[in-house]
Records
---
Amino acid sequence: MTRQNRVTPFGDIVATPDRGTLMGNRGLLHDAGGRIRRAWQLRRWIVCVLEFKERRRQVMTPGRYTELFFLDEATGLAAGHRPCAECRRTRYTAFRTAWAAHLGRDGSPPSAGEIDDRLHAERVGPDRSKRIFLARLDDLPDGVFIQHSEQQEVAYLVWGDGLLAWSAGGYTRRIDRPTGAAVLVLTPASTVGAIRAGYVPDVHPSAAAWLDRRR
């Protein structure tokens, strides 16, 4: 049975047989039959590792949080998640440090709650749809997701001098990164700022494969 528990860069929760490299949650989203009934429950949207301290869970246990899966960390960040403070502590600390640097707050990293509140305001609109914003592609760092004007249903990862088309199983094609273009950004603005300030998202190995083809 293919469960509806994979997250796209648009923040949608879809059903696909492809496996993710990271896990996360937004609270209890499914019913007793394993069907998704809401897009989120909590403001704490996190990205976790697949294995931690030999813990074992039955996926979509009734009454427990819904296990979500991501192709990679860049996908989770685009959807509006952040690194988990427990199982990805080092990454969480690096994310907080970069977030503070983006805000110019030397020596005063934000709390998890502060990050969660800011991200929630940036990822969810009044009608509960995903918020996006307009930016110059030239100003965006690697690891950010955008929509391309000619294929708005496809999310593209900004990666070097190219844009990589996302799929649940990996990055499927590359197009040259245009200069001087205005694009719609899927990754929340504060997360873009953290990436620009030095946080480097983990990306699926297929991204590196496209880079190798350019050499």
---
Amino acid sequence: MPATGRPASKRRTVPDLIAIDDPADPRIAAYRDVRERDLVGRDGLFVAEGKVVVEKVIASDRHRLLSLLIAGKRADTLAPMLARLPRDMPVYVADQPVLDAIAGFPIHRGIIGIGARTETPSADALLARLPGKAAVLLLSGIANHDNMGGIFRNAAAFGIDAILLDADCCDPLYRKAIRVSVGAALLLPWAMLGRGADPLVLLDRHRFESVALSPAGTSLLADWRPAPRTAVLLGAEGPGLDAGLLARTTSLRIEMAGGFDSLNVATTSGIALHHLAAARTTGHR
């Protein structure tokens, strides 16, 4: 029995740390200049930045962590997390100046990982596997990564079951979107609609009642009572949702002070999804 009091086979071990002292080292090519060239669209890879986000990748059954790059000063404090990794996973360690030079910007959190995404399901397949009572988000034209990350974070906080994105949305696994979502983009099921697809036909086929958020909504959000299967539609700031979609759904507006009728779309999502979650909790569904 070792001095720790635990059998050797039960002791937690961390992968061997691979020292990097040259930002041009070919072993860390995937990490180089990630600010300027995000890995989305490159062999299905994505960047996970910060301990909280990396932990979500490790816990995810939808994505796989391939390697880590950490600051040497953080190696000891990160040991419990590193012990959860496969023994043969590459974990590169560098002094902070080298780490920052590799990434192309200061990595204040001292940890960054490269992950591989799983195949994203079709929207039809995603909706088909949801439970009888479910709530989904449909996003249209959300091209700002901060807004995308904020919406995913709110969706996770308020129990949304899945998110659909039209062809004009940005990728939720872009580095900044993942970071702003605090890893929620790695956990929530989502699917991308094909260009020209009619989302309302799809939602109707899966028995979802659709409602759209708009400053010009005909009803107040505060008066709305969601159906057992509800889809909430959100459009980009400025252009908003397509007029054709609005005309075919119940449109809701958030009551505001006189002379002001606009909110950031991520803020709108938080208000609307909190209302939806409260209605589910109090039995209005």
---
Amino acid sequence: MSKIAFIGLGVMGYPMAAHLQAAGHEVTVYNRTASRADAWLAEHDAANSAVAATPAAAAQGADYVMTCVGNDDDLRAVVLGEQGVLASMANGAVLIDHTTASAEVARELAGVAAMQGVSFVDAPVSGGQQGAENGALTIMCGGTDYAFSRAAKVMQPYAKAITHLGPVGAGQLTKMVNQICVAGVVQGLAEGMNFAAKAGLDVQQVIDAISQGAASSWQMVNRHRSMIAGEYEHGFAIDWMRKDLDICLAEAANNGSDLTITAQINQYYRELQESGGGRWDTSALLKRLQEQ
């Protein structure tokens, strides 16, 4: 069992930290909104759990530090500076970042960490809140073989699959591929369901039929019922997908990739944000079509 600091208790980090604590690790948590950390401790109060007032305090003496925050700037804020985790992490510790962020910030922080003997793994996750709660996340990792081998052992309590994709940054680049593919699938599902309704078909019956064949996807199986019901107050928020797709498009500008469809879907999400749907699930692309 290890001493672990977990920084960021959002919809993903909250259950991930709980899985580590349940596995017997000594877990100290930090969250920018302190009441969230207090709620976590109240729910998981035991001899092997605690709350810290700063990221640095949480990381004091930790073998592993996990971060799961919003974006590049949030990540820098909890890692760097006098109150950041690197201010107190010891030589030989491992910093594992679960934030969906840029490959650039991963390389930047890995360089700073290396100067004080701390290993770094960028390890963005896929599987959503449901995957985090069920301990069934897909984790995409970048880092040295040594850092990955150490990180993989401690991430097991909340993972379904853990893959080493290459050097630092490779995890974030792979998560970009994931988001590009997800955006295209959700838009295709929304267009298909909208087409079925306008053609006078029973949409549920159509999904029951085509989900047994090549058209099936995780989004189809897990989101079609809430889409039919027009329920979007759940799941992965459009605000976060917009952030992720902006990262994808910025990286594409650097490597020369053509993301024409991704850019168009990003614009659709922007329209939903502007209409007040920033916290809706990404499957709300159907709502946009229905209201045209």
